[in-house]
Amino acid sequence: MSGLAVSATINGDEVEYLCQAEETLLDVLRNRLGLTGAKEGCGTGDCGACSVVLDGKLVCSCLVLGAEVQGATVETIEGMAKGDTLHPLQTKFLEHAALQCGICTPGFLMAAKALLDANPDPTEEEIRFGLAGNLCRCTGYDKIVRAVQAAALEINGG
Amino acid sequence: MRFDATYQDRTYKSVGTRPVRPDGVDKVTGRARYGADFNMPGQLVGRILRSPHAHARIGSIDTARAEALKGVKAVVTADDLPDLSNGDQAHHDLLDNCMARSTAFYDGHAVAAVAAVDARTARQALKLIEVSYEVLPHVVDVDEAMLPSAPVLHDTIFTDGVDPRPTTSSNVAARSEFGHGDVDAGLAAADVIVERSFKTEQTHQGYIEPHACVASVNSDGTAELWVCTQGHFVYRQKCADLLGMDVSKLRVTSSEIGGGFGGKTHVWMEPVALALSRKAGRPVKLVMSREEVFRASGPTSATSIDVIIGARHDGTITAASAELRYSCGPYAELWAELGAMTSFACYDLQNVKTVGYEVLVNRPKTAAYRAPSAPMAAFAVESVVDELAQKLGMDPIAFRIKNAAREGTRSSYGPVYGPIGIRPTLDAAQAHPHMHAPLGPNKGRGMACGFWFNFGGQTCTDLNVNADGTVTLAVGTVDVGGSRASLSLVAAEELGIPYEHVRAVVADTATLGYNDMTDGSRGTFSSSMATISASRNAIEVMRSRAAMMWDIPVEEVIWEDGHAKAIGASYGNLAPLSVREIAEASGKTGGPIAGHSEMVADGAGVSFATHICDVEVDPETGSTRILRYTVIQDAGKAVHPDYVEGQYQGGAAQGIGWALNEEYVYGADGRLQNPGFLDYRIPVCSDLPMIDTQILEIPNPSHPYGVRGVGETSIVPPLAAIANAVSNAVGVRMTHIPMSPPRILAALDARTKG
User: Fold this and answer.
1) What does the alpha-carbon distance between residue B376 and residue B255 come to, in Å, rounded to a whole number?
2) What pLDDT band is residue B92 in, cutting at 50, 70 and 90?
3) Residue B304 phi, psi (nearest 5)
4) Which of helix, strand or coil describes residue A80?
5) Does residue A2 have a pLDDT over 80?
6) Average pLDDT over all residues of chain B
7) Beta-carbon contacts of residue B91 (< 8 Å; ≥ 6 apart)
8) Cβ <8 Å between A129 and B685
9) Boundary of a domain, candidates A12, A47, A79
10) Which among B25, B119, B207 has the least Cβ separation from residue A137?
11) B558 and B564 in contact (C-beta within 8 Å)?
12) Share of chain B above pLDDT 70, in %
């Protein structure tokens, strides 16, 4: 069985791995690199639970092949906090009870961070459409939207 | 000391606050471990082969080529899961659903499984298994399945609950009936009668985490199972039963659970994972794909319901009756019975009758889905109630208030109510600004009420006081949405210590006594009652230790504000002892300090809600947009209000999806056409507005703090509230859920032509 050799930068660390041609980036993260924060909710790019940032773009890691990541930079939920310091989005998700079961939370946080990085002061509608690629079945999204609004306020020094 | 579970009014320090949950940081950093996030040494990858046919007799299964494939370590079929049911039909049906025996009863029914060294090999192995099927006629529609001409799933089913017993087998597994009074006489006394028929389509709970487990069976017959479940003790019992194991030899650990909503109260593939591990002699990880989740787990019943209600001009309902037909999948269950029980539970009725029919169809086994069976019944009944109010020229809330159940009402399903919250939710709705906001063209407002029983059940909790005075709380009810925070608040409240000094964990089946599942909205209700009991037992221990430390009689030690205090003038110079001081000395006063509790948590108070909804319907596309949504529900006592609101909002959102979009679509071949989130579309963030909530607190007299379950009732009113809103917006009574654009356009078309 031959694997494909891949080098990439993941959460700032240089990583090398072997993977099969059919393995997705999500498979690689979860099964080969032990980064299980990204979840497989659908495997078809419909739920966003596997969201990561690939070379600065938010992607569903289930729709990217592990071999495609050669030379790329990947950010996952495991790299969001800086040491002991949570990102304001993580803090606000906790303070606003924006999670119930929490399975969608890593994907929402990655998507919300990508949204705020691109648009630091989004309207409620921009938040709702910015997060429309992520499914949550527990919360009805109300507390998630409020948490993102609060995080934006904090990041902007409000 | 006998535990006193009756309500006592009190001022709270911890309960009712909104601290961060103890499992929170793990969940925002990706460290929390869910079903698929766990691995064992030497683990194999499992995969299941599923029937492509809706109904087929299984001739033979040839696994030789798959077994010969390099890297395949085990292949199992029904032969590896022998039938140990010994006449127990429910046991047989559960086993048959996990692995088809002689017949595949639905598209997606498991017929074989493999365990291999990696996913690629497992996938290849599935393709090498040869199954010969004899395709049989199938039926997926609940009404068609009841016709005498329908293909019969089981020739052993003769409708239960009918006297005399039918002489021919059918797909109607059982009939149930509830009510009191004389409906015919009541209808004769009515001035206005509304009679209508309704249909609701099958939906899935739609939890984002697919079913996942890791099973490890050892050569000595002991086994471990890591699994996402709403009830690991129940999974242990079911798996041990199905596999013929001693309960004590199977240790089940519940992972973090990525949503369940009732769908993770049934075993689906866990027994298969154990059978694979038993045969392979290695741990096996089995994870469903999303397609498998849709085809082979979950869904709720599809229903067909007739309702007739009569009332006098003054608004008094004189009679109400419903016939409810619920699909069960291939196995007999009690889904229509639950619908029949809940139909009219909101009202005080002299003459009421409901009849339920359990209908077998070639669809996946129906599973519980949040207040199972109640939303569909409420949709039908609350639609007719709304129409009746309109015909009487009455305000829909005033009409409901006039007929609302109250303390002392004999419910339509039998019991007499204690203090209940239906009237307060209606009063709050009537006073709510939402009811009085103006509406524009193509917009409509609807409201509806909902009821759920709430469950209690078997519960066991341990509270250990650590040497530094902090507390570890071990509970056995799986935390599906923040209950560890709520239960920590309860322990802190009882002991009089800070919330941060309590750490709640969900214990595995080997380390705590049996607990029923987290279902029936019982998690926080029952485990908080057990936590209060365990805390009070620990306080008794700490009082006696303090007495020992002071060398005074224990009767002269009280517990107050987290301290043991000596009462009596002669003890004036004894400084109160904190939990920490008592705990630090415990090695010299009798050893570790703990409080335990084992109970059947009786007295789960029934729950009521009223929802208000505004919609806008686009007459060109038939698309409906939710403009505003308000949930008003009785919580008894909200232990952690954030998570109570979260339950209200989440149930409403699921109901919105059910009302407008979600449905199982079957082809003429009986195969599911939309087993994925692209075509089975649940609400996304941009579909919804903020969901306003109002928590009412009408104490449950059977809980020390007055707590009622809050998890399920919130999904009961939305179907009806939204249907009433859409009906008001378009001027046509909508009778088929979901109200997808094609159905709304058809209704508008019929109105134009009509």
Assistant:
1) 32
2) very high
3) -140, 120
4) coil
5) no
6) 97
7) B84, B85, B241, B242
8) yes
9) A79
10) B207
11) yes
12) 100
Q: Give dist(CA A146, CA A126) in Å, integer.
A: 13
Q: Are B533 and B459 in contact (CB under 8 A)?
A: no
Q: Indicate if the pLDDT at residue B148 is higher than 90.
A: yes
- Residue ending a domain, choose from A79, A98, A127: A79
Q: Give bridge partners of residue B227 from the DSSP assignment.
A: B213, B254
Which chain B residue has its CA at the smallest distance from A47's CA?
Answer: B677
For the domain with range B24-32+456-599, which CATH number is right: 2.60.40.10, 3.30.365.10, 3.30.300.20, 3.90.226.10? 3.30.365.10
Q: What is the mean pLDDT of residues B394-402?
A: 98
Instruction: Give contacts of A125 with chain B, Cβ < 8 Å.
Output: 686
- Residue-level pLDDT at A157: 87
The per-residue pLDDT for range B42-67, each reduced to its tens digit, is 999 999 999 999 999 999 999 999 99
Listed by number, the residues of chain B in 28-47 with a beta carbon closer than 8 Å to a beta carbon of chain A are: 28-34, 36-37
- Residues A41-99: pLDDT tens digits? 999 999 999 999 999 999 999 999 999 999 999 999 999 999 999 999 999 999 999 99
pLDDT value of position B572: 79
DSSP letter assigned to residue B18: -
pLDDT for the residue numbered A1: 55
Q: What gap in Å lies between CA B219 and CA B104, rounded to an integer?
A: 32
May I ask the CATH architecture of the domain B35-136+210-257+264-296? Alpha-Beta Complex (3.90)
pLDDT above 80 (res B1): no
Q: Which chain A residue has its CA at the smallest distance from B207's CA?
A: A137
pLDDT band for position A158 (cuts 50, 70, 90):
low
Determine, for residues B685 and A142 on separate chains, whether the beta-carbon distance falls below 8 Å. no
Q: Residue B599: how many CA atoms within 13 Å on its side-chain side?
A: 24
H-helix or E-strand spanning residue A95: helix A88-95
Owning domain of residue A8: 4-79
Mean pLDDT score, A20-36 = 97
**First-last CA distance in chain B:** 71
Percentage of chain B surpassing pLDDT 90?
Answer: 97
Point out the residue among B27, B261, B686 whose CB comes nearest to the CB of A99.
B27
Q: Cα distance from B367 to chain A (closest Cα, Å)?
A: 17
Residues on chain A touching B123 (C-beta within 8 angstroms):
none
- Please say whether the beta carbons of B268 and B241 come within 8 A: no
What part of B 194-223 touches A (C-beta under 8 Å)?
A: 205-210
Measured between its terminal Cα atoms, the distance across chain A in Å is 56
Task: Please judge whether A39 and B31 are an interchain contact, meaning their C-beta atoms are less than 8 angstroms apart.
Answer: no
Residue in chain A closest to B289 (alpha carbons) equals A42
Is B754's pLDDT higher than 90? Answer: no
Q: What is the CATH number of the domain that holds A66?
A: 3.10.20.30
- To probe the interface with A, which of B20, B29, B690 has the most A CB atoms within 10 Å? B29
Number of H helices, E strands in chain B: 20, 27
* Token pair for B371: 């207040």
